[in-house]
Amino acid sequence: MNRRKFFAGLGATGYSLTVLADLLPRAEAQQAPGFVRPDFSTVTPPNPAWATALAEPHMRLVDLETDVMVAGGGLAGVCAAIAAARQGARVILVQDRSRLGGNSSSEVKMHVVGANAHTGRPGWREGGILEELRLADAVNNPQRCWELWDLLLYDKVVSEKNITVMLETVLYSAVMKDGKIHQVLARCDKSEHLYRISAKMFLDCTGDSRLGLEAGAEMRSGRETRNEYGESLAPLVADNETLGSSILFTSKLYRKPMPFTPPVWARKVTKEMLNHRSVNSWEYGYWWIEWGGNKDVVHNNELIRFELLSIVMGVWDYIKNSGAYPDSANWAMDWVGMMPGKRGGRRITGDYILKQQDLISGKFADSIAIGGWPMDDHPPGGFDRSDLPPNTSIKPPEVYEIPLRSVYSKNIPNLLMAGRNISASHVAFTSARVMATCAVIGQAAGTAAAQCAMAGITPRQLASDPRKVMHLQQTLLRDDQTIKGLKNEDPKDFAREAAITASAEEGGARAALVIDGITRDIPDKRGDPAEIHHWAAPLVEGKSAWIELSWNTPKRLRQIQLTFDTGFKRQLTLSSQDAVNNSCLRAAQTETVKDYTVTAVTASGASKTIASVKGNFQRINRLAADLSDVKRLRVEVTATNGLEQARIFEIRCYS
Predict the structure, then answer these.
(1) Residue 28 pLDDT more than 80?
(2) Residue 338 and residue 250: Cα distance in Å, rounded?
(3) Is 629 exposed, middle or buried (0-12, 13-18, 19+ CB in 10 A)?
(4) pLDDT tens readout for residues 545-563
(5) Full residue range of the structural domain in which residue 562 is found
(6) Same domain assignment for residues 94 and 67
(7) Tally of structural domains, the chain
């Protein structure tokens, strides 16, 4: 059979997104200009010869070919797929659930945390694709609906023309050739399809390292001995134990008493079991309802689900019926998770293993992302160890670097990984495992995978070439990834050559800082700027603020990139926990430029309006232009989303 490419042609390198599902409605909808509607047609007729060979007589076999295949649709996989697609690579994203987002989805409802450690390290919120998602959610979902977060992630993926997304599709095997992954086999029982997916690069974002397992990647699990890497936080004796899983619940206050009768299999929770576990509020369950770290978290998934549900029911029974919390009388559960939110699992071994010391003072020439969550270890017995605190949290002194060599496999040349399964010791994993850190690792790994696929090289070859590493890092910086200690040195950005003037400057927020190469203020311990890297000018009622770039030699201008302030000092995440939500702004961030105009003056003195933007709430704005002799470029800000001050971190210009 000829391989079929289930894409609509968009030129030599562009493919439209395709959702591979059977018999969905074909009615034409009114779409935005430029949107390419996915093809929902039946993909291929069954072939009895194939089906018999695979012992699946009623399944349809489909061959697919792509540049980058991403396994796993949590935040690491979503950001990896989007990043690779935006680099021009064709991407297939395989997700075994009906929705994207992993532990952040409505199936688990875990709020996304990362380098800013809730409010413990203010000013270090992640940028890049994750920030784009968070900002869109804050503006379009002020009611804090988790299903709308699911929809946002789906929208972001299906709106990328280079991504093919396959939901409810389970990876189950890998075909190896010459030591590399040649094909991945996956199945969707909802549509009765078997897929053979060929790709140049493969990304394991499954959390449990399922792709690495099938490919024979070198892996590790559990806790290393203290002597193996000289980690003071590691145990004296190595074991195969890890962090447990959790199931959350939510509850609401009603206008009448709401009784609760636990199921017969609920645990009987006592006051003593909660000695180290705080019950201050109950609208959002408890992360410390944790169990199974001393079990095989993959093969005991059903047991872990049952035990977690029994603990949830027992804790809620104690809150409602013990008499210790009379204020709970009018409260009732309105949701209980049915999927354990995993923490631990298998970790794929890379060329470098991230360790405790690296989180304290590590420096890497191939750094591609930052982390900053505390080294947050939990007793493997979880709730069963009521004699112990539910966690031990030790915060690194600063945000730390994550190297490229920790996000590709040591022994499978075309396999990268992103998420909680990167190459790390258990101690380092307890910090790097959180979802915001997984997301920025995903963006870095997806970008690297795309560059490797298009250059025909392996990730190890990329990591061993300083020029290629620098190119990767500069690409990531352009896409708003924070890499500690690095700044914009992109030779193609001719804004760096410009003379800068402005309508005004406030304090140390000078106009020249828009080309200093750093796109965030470096905060002190309170989150206030210890180093300022933005321009600021007052916005007086009825008057605008402007900043202008000028060149002695006329420039050909094709793209302008603006980076605005989106309030990194505050926390921003979707959460059902009121205490967390109170530190967030569920709207456009007040510091962000809302309305602005960009105009250019050519060598002949003619003025041309390139863009007039209204209602912006995003941090990164990219504007297309088509001018060949630009002498001056002005950005004029007329309104923000609340702050009476115009702020811009960076202006880039490209031809």
Answers:
(1) no
(2) 12
(3) middle
(4) 999 999 999 999 999 999 9
(5) 494-654
(6) yes
(7) 3
